[in-house]
Amino acid sequence: MDLITKDLFLCHNSIDKDWVTLFGERIEKEIQNEKNLSVFLDAWDIEIGANIIWKLNEGLDKSRFLAVVMTPEMLTSDWCKLEVSSFMMEDPTNRKGKIIPILLRDTDSKTGERINIPPVLRSMNFLDFRNPKNFEKEYARLVAKIKGMQIPRSSSIAAGRRESKHRDHSFVQPPLANERSAADSVTEALVSNLLPVKAPEFVWSAPTFLTSKRDLHEFYRYPAFIVRSGKLYTFTDLSNPKNKFFDFIKPGSKTERISSSDWRADSAKWKWIIELMNDSLRRYLWNEGVNFHPKSERYFFRPNGKKSVFIKWGAGDKRCVVKYPKDGKGNWVHQAARLHFELLGTDLYLSIDPSWMFTIDGFTSVTKENASPLAAKWGGRERNGGIIRHVLMWSDMITQGNFTAEIDTDGQFIEIGRMPATAMTSVGIADDRVAIRALLQFTDEEKSLSSDDEPTFGFVADTTEAAPKNEATL
């Protein structure tokens, strides 16, 4: 006998059975097209003596959506991995939106270990049921997803209650054929992680005795340069006899001045300009207290002795960018980012990808095996607002709070704008306007650490420790 088609399959660990059962009961009270929604739950749909694997397979095959109720126990369960894998085999990137991640708990109920969400689920936008105060809002979003309806964000809580009590469908859009919610027809500005950049106007070249950077003792003390096929390339004016590379240029050789714009169409030579700019950026940020980790290609704030480091930025908030381990035991935590110059079309930008750096002494990174759980602990709970604030903090630091940063390349300048590039779209989410000024303000949760030193949504200042006397004011 064919199973009745289910609207939602609830993938969960047995330890959360009570919560999931009540959750499923409430969902089945929802009505769509004059019929109650239906949920597949093993306790309800697998009879005594039935083949569990076959029944699970039928339930998955007949369900429109898979709700993954994420807890530490669920993510380590082989049965749950099997259920999730069956959906992901059909749609690995969840392009059809059939997998609905639900975050229920952060810590294991027995061991206290923190959740480690796998990358395939971490990249998806999930529903957050950890805080009971958010239940109605998140529940309304879930029901709208199942029904293929659009709920205005500002009315999500009230809409969820109205749907449950009065079955009033007047506030939603009609269901779409593909069961996915349509965007609202509203003009919306999207804030990017790209800072506008102006490259130096010229590159200078001359034949050289050097075969590589390593031939030049303490090469990092010189302006940015590269060596290619017996020639030295730099933003420094090599025709000036007082230039710092004079002793390394072959006597009597001719220097050449090349327009940077002439190399834009030559991908190989344009990479040389990007390399010179990245080298210049590393030297500039070193003077601002930021190190570069070549292996991971991440910039990270370096410590100042055995204490946390604070900076001021944006609206004047004090922010911790290097966290000294409690009682001197454990790992250092550093605010970090991957910074890359990129040419998009005809425009040049500095891309800021916020990240974290974990070290054993303030400089030496932890092993890859230890870094993964730390990254999940510190970054796994961040959302768009927190990540954008990271981007804006780095922008403010790079520009020193000015409208533009001018990085001196020994005569020429790399100009980096402070405000990220934005793009306008004709569709978006109604009532979802966030002012840039608001993003410069940290929430109370982002400014304080919990008593056991666990992170909240972002890198935060340790309010129990006075800022060091040499704190940088940006």
Task: Characterize the structure shown.
This protein has 474 residues and is an alpha+beta fold. Among the domains are: 125 residues, 3-Layer(aba) Sandwich (Rossmann fold), CATH 3.40.50; 190 residues, no CATH class. Helix content is 27%, strand content 24%.
Number of strands: 23
Detail the poorly predicted runs: 154-181, 433-474
Distance between the termini: 70 Å
Structural class of the helix and strand makeup? alpha+beta
Estimated radius of gyration: 28 Å
How confident is the prediction overall: mean pLDDT?
77
Percent helix among the residues? 25-40%
Strand content: 15-25%
Shape: elongated
Total helix count?
13
- Biggest pleated-sheet summary: 10 strands, mixed
Summary tags:
10-stranded mixed sheet, alpha+beta, 474 residues, elongated, disordered C terminus
Helix/strand layout:
Elements: E1 6-11, H1 17-27, E2 31-32, E3 35-36, E4 39-40, H2 42-45, H3 52-62, E5 63-70, H4 72-75, H5 78-90, E6 99-103, H6 119-122, E7 127-128, H7 135-147, H8 156-166, E8 188-191, E9 194-198, E10 202-207, E11 225-228, E12 231-234, E13 256-259, H9 267-286, E14 290-293, E15 298-301, E16 309-313, E17 317-323, E18 332-344, E19 347-359, H10 368-379, H11 384-399, E20 404-408, E21 413-417, E22 422-425, H12 436-439, H13 444-447, E23 472-473
Parallel strand pairs: 1-4, 1-5, 5-6, 6-7, 16-23
Antiparallel strand pairs: 2-3, 8-22, 9-19, 9-21, 10-12, 10-13, 11-12, 14-15, 15-18, 16-17, 17-18, 18-19, 20-21
